[in-house]
Predict the 3D structure of the following.
Amino acid sequence: MSIFNAIGVAGTGVTVYRKWLDAVADNIANVNTTSRTSENAFQARYVQAQAAQDGNGAQVGGIHYGSAEGILAYEPDNPLADAEGYVRRPDIDMGSQMAQMMMAQRSYQANLSVVDRARDSYTAAINLGK
């Protein structure tokens, strides 16, 4: 791997962490989504990262989904409640999602910083030759 691959490798990290941020944001946005007890609950998305096939960087290895069973919550005033007053809510831990969001955001920023610094280094190297 040459020094000029830094932007490409960091770019793969940016892509993986952007997808992780998207999944976490979607999970947080749907934490209070209710459904009928006869339906599936919103399923949280979890991004699995893996090394890129060419060995340079990372890639999304797969998306895994949380439980469709969710949690039964007693909400008799909810229009989706069954005869006993229950609705189905997703099984999403807000604390865990916030921690994942912070990790993904910091990692995303770090990869963007690598891209910026590599670009600046390449520009400086080009200007030395002038």
Notes: Residues 8 and 60 are 15 Å apart (CA to CA). The chain has one domain: 3-93+101-114. Residues 94-128 form the longest helix (35 residues).
